[in-house]
Amino acid sequence: MNRYRADAQTIDQGIESIQRAIELASFARENFPGTIDGDTSINLILKNTFIRALKVHQMRLILVKYKMNSKMIDLFDKILQLAEEIINNCRENPISIEDSIPYCAYDRGHLDEAYGVIGSVYNERSKFSCEGLGVQERDSKFLSESVKNYENSLKYLPNDDPNFALFHYLIAAYKLMIGGHTLHEIKQHAQKAKECEKEVHPVFGDYVGDSFEKSIVFQSLEQLRRPYYIVSDDDYFLPKACQVSSNSKEEEQRFIQEYKDKTGGIEATKMDLSQAAARANAELLRNGYWFLNDVSKGDNN
Hints:
This protein has helices at 8-31, 41-44, 48-68, 73-92, 107-125, 140-154, 162-178, 183-204, 212-223, 249-262, 275-285, and strands at residues 127-130, 135-138. The radius of gyration is 23 Å and the shape is globular. The chain has a domain at 1-95 and 106-130. The protein contains 11 helices and 2 strands, in the order αααααββαααααα. A two-stranded antiparallel sheet has the order 1-2.
C-alpha cells in the first residue's frame, strides 16, 4: 500500500498548526464556557471530544517524526504524554454508542488510536543495532510494552478494521522474538489476522502487504510443519537472546535462564539442548526466531 511520506519540515508545521488549534479551542472552552452549548458549527469544535481528536492527530504526527530519528527521547516522552491524556480523557468523558453526534469523537476510536500509538512508539524504542553482529536487535522490555499496548488497542478495534489484522501480525511476530509464548497463541493471532484481511480486502485492498512481521509469522508456522519438528500447541518458543549459534555451553545457560524467566520458572530439564536441537535452533535463528522442542517428544541423545 503506497503512503505519502512528508518531510520533517512539513511534519513540524503540521504539529505546530495542530498545537495552535488545541490552544485556541482550549482557551475558548475555559474562558467562554457558555458558547459550547448548542449545535452550531463553531460550538461543535469547542467541545472536549473535538479537542481530544486534535490531540490524536498531533500524537500520530509526532510518532512519524520520532520514527525518522528514534534517538529524540523528548518526542518519545511527548507521545506517551499525549496518549495518556487521551486515554484519561476518554475515561472521564465516555460517549455512548447511542449518542447522536455530528463529528468524529467516539471514545473507542480514540482509545484504539492511543494504545496503538503507544505500541508503535515502544516498538521503535526497542530497536538498536548490534554492530559486532551486523544485525538489528531488540530490547525485550520495550518490545513487551509494545505487545501489551497493541493488545489493549485490539480491545477497541472492530474485527473488520485493517489495523486489527496488522496488530495481530505485529503481536505474533514480537511474541516470537520475546519468547515464552505458546504455539497456540501464535496460531490464534495469525488466524484472526487472516480472517480480517479477507474481510477488509474489497475496501482496503492489500493493506498489510508482505510486511516483515507478517513474513516472520508465516515462515515460522511453515517451518513447524516440517516432519523433523514435533510440535504441539502447548510448546513454548525460546526467547531470541542474540544472533549467534546455540552450540556453546554459555549460550545454553543463557537460553535456560531467559526461558525460565519468561515462563515462570519451568524446569530447564524440559529443554532439549542436544546437538540436534542446537542445529535446528541455528537454522531457525537465521530466519530471526527460535523454537523450543519439549525433550520428552524428541531425541535427547
